[in-house]
């Protein structure tokens, strides 16, 4: 092969050699086996299909590609380091994503695009053989494999459709040598929803073959009902998070989000990783150096504060200094001083604690530095990053359902409040039920309300008690932090929270564009294509 780079990404890497024979300027590679022959044995096809989920999962939770900078851009964490673009991409004013050849983050920009497109294509190829007449041994086994393969296609397309502005849509009904063109993110996510529906339809004919083998979703003997719940939660997330701005988020079919989330997860979904299993999550142990990489952004941490220090810090921004957050929220260390909070931050969190007030040296992440680290999964990290890791928590599904209730043509404030209270009340915050009657009512608590959110005013900056939507967003941030693949970035752009100019998605990596012989392009920046337009919700 002389015209396609060996680093071909996405779908091209899977089919380029077969397609090459169509180009008279290319030399066919006779060392490449015919894929129809490779996929001729039932066991191999089944392994291809169920292995595609592991590829999809490892390609998001097990790598550090665009995730670190997306988290920094959405204030999920703060760091001044150049690694993965965290510091440069979290700076205000926001700059564009450089997608030129030789850019500093060319590998990071490519990683998830590549992995998600490959995983979806592998699942589609396996399904192709089943729809061509290959059987795994029984109609029930065939239906189970079809359900699982369609599920993986839906997951891979959802991930790439949420993160990038366009991608290819593989289909089991295409020839194995076919290279799909790039489609817009809206079309990609629409195709993901069709795939999820196909997965649900096939589960009905696979009853005898459930629960799923443990190896398919590692550590889980997933029942038919549990698998359907997982698919519905993925559907709800895809529908809501495809939005790139508040206008698109408002235009989401929230009735459908409601219908999907209402049938979604009834418990956290966890994947067992590490221990030589071949399944990974956050394998880069740099994430557990805390203050250097993942200290909590002061803008978010401050929303828990009831002392007034948050507003003082905002008014001094970008020259404010870290402060002690005094809050009734039990996910944060309690105490009236830093020393008291450090004493209340054990080496491994206990009770409801998600965050610690760190001991030892602080590392600057100006202007977002804080004293706080997220360490909810510290026991898992201390166990050599081995064991069950929550990759889709029930709370995320519940809060998507709550948002749907708030955005329905006739909002159901009471039901949204009930759902938000599921995590809010056990963590020490006053109930919304019976206290919030309209979308604009402030959360209860008066001067001690949580969350206390910045307004759009910038001179001087000010804060107010959040409304029920902000209460939902607060719980979403607390409960999904690092447990859902860059979900706070996806949701924040739809909520309109990102600072002006923040890239609202990544461009298709230049490597893929080169392979397709298309021009590549950049994305985002103030006043540029693909940048968040106007000042965000919190005045940045």
Give the spatial strand order of the biggest sheet.
1-2
Average predicted local confidence, pLDDT: 92
Q: Kindly state the percentage of residues in helix.
A: 40-55%
CATH class of the largest domain: Mainly Alpha
H and E order: HHHHHHHEEHHHHEHHHEEHEHHEEHHH
Total beta-strand segments: 8
Strand content: 5-15%
Rg, Cα atoms, Å: 23 Å
Intertermini distance: 49 Å
Shape label: globular
Category by helix and strand content: mainly alpha
The CATH architecture category of the largest domain equals Alpha Horseshoe
* Contiguous helical run count: 20
Examine the coordinates and then state which fold CATH places here, giving the name of the CATH topology of the largest domain.
Serine Threonine Protein Phosphatase 5, Tetratricopeptide repeat
Quickly count the domains.
2
Largest sheet: 2 strands, antiparallel
What's this entry about, in short?
By secondary structure, the protein is mainly alpha-helical.
Keywords:
two-stranded antiparallel sheet; 6% strand; 540 residues; mainly alpha; 20 helices; Serine Threonine Protein Phosphatase 5, Tetratricopeptide repeat; single chain
């Amino acid at each position: 092969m002389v015209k396609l780079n060996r680093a071909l990404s996405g779908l091209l890497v899977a089919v380029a050699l077969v397609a090459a024979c169509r180009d008279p300027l290319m030399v066919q590679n006779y060392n490449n086996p015919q894929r129809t022959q490779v996929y001729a044995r039932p066991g191999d096809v089944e392994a291809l299909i169920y292995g595609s989920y592991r590829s999809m999962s490892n390609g998001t939770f097990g790598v550090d590609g665009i995730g670190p900078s997306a988290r920094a851009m959405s204030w999920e964490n703060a760091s001044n380091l150049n690694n993965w673009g965290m510091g440069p991409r979290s700076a205000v004013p926001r700059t564009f994503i450089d997608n030129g050849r030789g850019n500093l983050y060319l590998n990071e920009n490519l990683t998830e695009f590549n992995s998600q497109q490959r995983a979806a294509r592998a699942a589609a190829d396996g399904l192709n053989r089943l729809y061509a007449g290959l059987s795994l041994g029984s109609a029930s086994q065939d239906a189970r494999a079809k359900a699982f393969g369609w599920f993986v296609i839906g997951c891979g397309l959802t991930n790439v459709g949420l993160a990038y502005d366009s991608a290819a849509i593989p289909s089991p009904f295409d020839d194995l040598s076919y290279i799909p063109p790039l489609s817009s993110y809206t079309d990609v996510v629409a195709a993901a929803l069709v795939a999820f529906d196909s997965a649900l339809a096939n589960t009905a004919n696979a009853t005898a073959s459930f629960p799923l083998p443990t190896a398919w979703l590692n550590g889980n003997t997933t029942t038919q009902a549990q698998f359907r719940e997982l698919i519905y939660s993925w559907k709800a997330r895809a529908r809501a998070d495809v939005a790139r701005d508040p206008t698109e988020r408002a235009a989401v079919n929230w009735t459908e989000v409601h219908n999907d989330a209402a049938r979604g997860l009834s418990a956290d979904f966890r994947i067992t990783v590490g221990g030589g299993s071949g399944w990974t999550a956050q394998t880069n142990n740099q994430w557990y150096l805390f203050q250097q990489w993942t200290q909590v952004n002061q803008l978010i941490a401050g929303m828990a504060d009831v002392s007034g220090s948050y507003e003082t810090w905002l008014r001094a921004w970008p020259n404010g200094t870290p402060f002690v957050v005094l809050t009734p929220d039990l996910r944060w260390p309690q105490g009236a001083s830093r020393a008291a909070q450090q004493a209340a931050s054990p080496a491994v969190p206990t009770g409801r604690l998600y965050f610690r007030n760190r001991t030892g040296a602080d590392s600057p992440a100006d202007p977002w530095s804080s004293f706080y680290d997220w360490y909810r999964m510290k026991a898992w990290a201390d166990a050599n990053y081995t064991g069950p890791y929550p990759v889709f928590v029930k709370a995320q599904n519940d809060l998507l359902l709550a948002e749907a209730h708030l955005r329905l043509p006739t909002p159901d404030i009471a039901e949204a409040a009930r759902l938000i209270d599921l995590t809010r009340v056990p963590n020490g915050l006053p109930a919304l039920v019976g206290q919030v009657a309209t979308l604009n009512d402030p959360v209860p608590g008066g001067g001690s309300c949580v969350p206390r959110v910045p307004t759009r005013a910038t001179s001087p900056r000010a804060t107010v008690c959040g409304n029920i939507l902000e209460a939902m967003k607060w719980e979403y941030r607390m409960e999904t932090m690092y447990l859902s693949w860059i979900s706070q970035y996806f949701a924040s752009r739809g909520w309109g929270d990102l600072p002006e100019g923040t890239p609202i998605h990544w461009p298709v990596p230049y490597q893929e564009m080169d392979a397709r012989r298309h021009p590549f392009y950049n994305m985002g920046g103030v006043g540029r294509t693909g940048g968040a337009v106007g000042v965000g919700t919190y005045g940045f």
